[in-house]
Amino acid sequence: MSASTNEEDSPVSNDYATAIGTLILTLVFLLGVPGNLFIVWSILARTCKRSVTTILILNLACADGFIMALTIFFIIYLAKQTWIFGPVMCKGLFYLCNANMYASIFLITLMSVHRMVAVLFPQKLHLISRKVVTRVIMGMWVLVMVISIPSLVFRELEIEPDFSENNSRIVCSPNHTWPTHVRFQYSLETVSGFILPYAVIVTCYVLTLRRLRQTQFQRRIRSEKLILAIVITFGIFWFPYHVINMVQVAAEWYNKKSKTRETLELIHENCRAVTSTFAFLSSCANPILYTFAGKSYIKKNGLAFMAKLFDGTASSDQSANKQNRTDSAGEMNNVLLNNTATT
């Protein structure tokens, strides 16, 4: 544990920011824990057809539900404005949060890639067995655990003075010895946890939509709408966090006495707690999205409405694959007929 002399370095030094953060995290906990548990229960206990999309949604709900259960520690931290859980929990909790960020965007990316394969290469879908999907997801989790290590290394407890109460408090904050540490950690988070995955996602959707416009299959299937909603929601909630990451990285390139650096540091110090807690909302937003997507089933199926939604997603995937195979075969026949007529 080290000592800190600058109150502005603390993520809980701003009363206004911590108050907003506490309110957001409380809302997240109340919505996210039961919501994600309901998704897991619906898929495991009530869903008859488990498509690749459904399996990915199950993993996403497990990751979100687990991290939502841990928000109670951050609520207490922000409310008391001092860390009472010790150094191990300081490192461990922030490590798990960082891993959840990567897991969420990687799972969403896998959903988008699968949709692209289903539309562009339907004849290859038989190669994507449950065994293959399981191996890919396991590999993804290993990658997530490895790439989140910087958040474990660059985190420790510090003692700082609380000038408002003429006392001191313990904070769990980033520990960057050199400016390169700041640039490395936050650039890694933003590039590998946001920019690159979103580039893949956008590419997948552009290719998918282009293919759909070239074929007779123009119907927007349920799974495509659902995945697109998940992608957009994740981006909305995580974009401010990554903007603050880049603000903090940019500040490290200026001289310590620079006015520009002072301004950038003031921005990220005042906004870090709010944007971090705002990002947590993405983990409780998915159950709400699924509820709206499956609202047509609620009256008829009751608590089984979400299972019916996922069964419908699996069925729409299968029908889309059949239609795309039919379209591909039709296009091939047309090519053969044109070639025959030419010769």
TrEMBL record:
<dbReference type="GO" id="GO:0007200">
    <property type="term" value="P:phospholipase C-activating G protein-coupled receptor signaling pathway"/>
</dbReference>
<keyword id="KW-0675">Receptor</keyword>
<feature type="transmembrane region" description="Helical">
    <location>
        <begin position="56"/>
        <end position="79"/>
    </location>
</feature>
<dbReference type="Pfam" id="PF00001">
    <property type="entry name" value="7tm_1"/>
</dbReference>
<feature type="transmembrane region" description="Helical">
    <location>
        <begin position="20"/>
        <end position="44"/>
    </location>
</feature>
<keyword id="KW-1003">Cell membrane</keyword>
<dbReference type="GO" id="GO:0004974">
    <property type="term" value="F:leukotriene receptor activity"/>
</dbReference>
<dbReference type="GO" id="GO:0004875">
    <property type="term" value="F:complement receptor activity"/>
</dbReference>
<dbReference type="GO" id="GO:0006954">
    <property type="term" value="P:inflammatory response"/>
</dbReference>
<comment type="similarity">
    <text>Belongs to the chemokine-like receptor (CMKLR) family.</text>
</comment>
<keyword id="KW-0812">Transmembrane</keyword>
<keyword id="KW-0807">Transducer</keyword>
<feature type="transmembrane region" description="Helical">
    <location>
        <begin position="184"/>
        <end position="206"/>
    </location>
</feature>
<feature type="transmembrane region" description="Helical">
    <location>
        <begin position="99"/>
        <end position="121"/>
    </location>
</feature>
<dbReference type="InterPro" id="IPR017452">
    <property type="entry name" value="GPCR_Rhodpsn_7TM"/>
</dbReference>
<feature type="region of interest" description="Disordered">
    <location>
        <begin position="315"/>
        <end position="343"/>
    </location>
</feature>
<keyword id="KW-1133">Transmembrane helix</keyword>
<keyword id="KW-0297">G-protein coupled receptor</keyword>
<keyword id="KW-0325">Glycoprotein</keyword>
<dbReference type="GO" id="GO:0007204">
    <property type="term" value="P:positive regulation of cytosolic calcium ion concentration"/>
</dbReference>
<protein>
    <recommendedName>
        <fullName>G-protein coupled receptors family 1 profile domain-containing protein</fullName>
    </recommendedName>
</protein>
<feature type="transmembrane region" description="Helical">
    <location>
        <begin position="133"/>
        <end position="154"/>
    </location>
</feature>
<keyword id="KW-0472">Membrane</keyword>
<dbReference type="InterPro" id="IPR003981">
    <property type="entry name" value="Leukotriene_B4_rcpt"/>
</dbReference>
<dbReference type="GO" id="GO:0005886">
    <property type="term" value="C:plasma membrane"/>
</dbReference>
<dbReference type="InterPro" id="IPR000826">
    <property type="entry name" value="Formyl_rcpt-rel"/>
</dbReference>
<dbReference type="InterPro" id="IPR000276">
    <property type="entry name" value="GPCR_Rhodpsn"/>
</dbReference>
<feature type="domain" description="G-protein coupled receptors family 1 profile">
    <location>
        <begin position="35"/>
        <end position="290"/>
    </location>
</feature>
<feature type="transmembrane region" description="Helical">
    <location>
        <begin position="226"/>
        <end position="244"/>
    </location>
</feature>
<feature type="compositionally biased region" description="Polar residues">
    <location>
        <begin position="315"/>
        <end position="327"/>
    </location>
</feature>
<keyword id="KW-0597">Phosphoprotein</keyword>
